[in-house]
Amino acid sequence: MVRALFQVARLKQPAVIFIDEIDSILTQRSDTEHESSRRLKTEFLIQFDGCATQTEDRILVIGVTNRPQELDEAARRRLVKRIYIPLPDLEGRKQLVKNLLREYSSKLTENDFDSIAKMTDGYSGADMNSLCKEAAYGPIRDVGHMLQTLDAKNVRPMQMKDFVVAHRQVRSSVGKSDVDLYEEWDAKFGCHITSQPMDDDDELETSP
């Protein structure tokens, strides 16, 4: 399966191989793991090394995980650009809500969007998605037993009160201890991108 994935990528290149929850297949190896799991990891690492052996190869491998500390060391070395994406900030949460409500009818004002962003400090993108979905049920609940016969255009738009109610139901799924763990791992293994240009006197440090 892994070999076929990389073969297809080579045939279709330029190609991107995107693996969500990459830790599920590339966890740290142990003496107690099943042989099939070990073979899968070995095959992935072999194919990973082989996809960039030719100068004309144009294959980008992207892995996403929320458990970076569980990645196998050999896999971590090969994933050289290790980028930590923090929780969305105030402006990010505000924009997320606007994007998520793009297909919904709402009467939310700019001040309402600001209020929603402020009351969701510590929420992840998935949390914001769940919050908006829960808030979208507000107008439907008001319809009650008339839902089967009422025309969709007669359902009221979403309002700020729907988010106040939804906020009581949907809480942040990421704790401070989780954030501390991610930041600690990032400080140790992360790739810290800087926008500052290098001076002529700067030298790249390489490890032996």
Automatic annotation (TrEMBL):
Residues 112-148 form the AAA ATPase AAA+ lid domain. GO terms for molecular function: ATP binding; ATP hydrolysis activity. Residues 156-190 form the Spastin/Vps4 C-terminal domain. Keywords: ATP-binding, Nucleotide-binding. It holds the Pfam family Vps4_C. Belongs to the AAA ATPase family. PANTHER family: AAA DOMAIN-CONTAINING (PTHR23074), FIDGETIN-LIKE PROTEIN 1 (PTHR23074:SF17). This is Fidgetin-like protein 1.
